Amino acid sequence: MPRAEFVHWLFASGLLALGLFLLAEAIVGTDVWRARTWRAYLWPSTLFAMGLFMWPVMVFFTNSTIHMVAHGSWAEVMMLAGAVELGLVTGKLQSGLWRLAMFASFVVTGVAFLAHEQNPWFFQRSAFLHHLLGWTFLCASLFPLARVVRPRSAMVASGFALTFIAVAVMLYCDRDVSPVFGHLSPLAGAPHR
Known about the structure:
The chain has helices spanning 6-28, 30-33, 37-40, 42-60, 65-90, 100-116, 125-140, 142-149, 154-172. The protein is built from nine helices and no strands.
């Protein structure tokens, strides 16, 4: 029996929480969401904490240089984007252009997912999911970019939130060696459950 993907599932849970916080804010509106001051800090602080927790993942759960670089870059951009969003919430940062940090975070994350997967799409499920996650982040980077121009748009806010939820679902599906759509490369190894 293979080891469970606890690290992926923990980060999937964090991303699911981010998505649900953002979706709740998109549904009720920013003014209602921030009627309780502490709620404004929920998703930026969760993102920043996830960046902090990515550092031990980089050190203890990686097996190659490219994985260390990818996880390290994720840690940096998650912390940066979380810190910027916290700065915007507190009012210490005034310009909406600071939201470009989240756009940069999505782009760096997408490129890192694509760069750190060495195998083709249909090699095994984890290879497929890494490619899917990378392209999802790159395509969905339009939402944080649109948040710079239209920060009060419900559609943009909903798309931004649903991106995190979709990525969380993808991470919950991650397994090391298992077939994707009935296909498993003979080079991938013995399939797991």
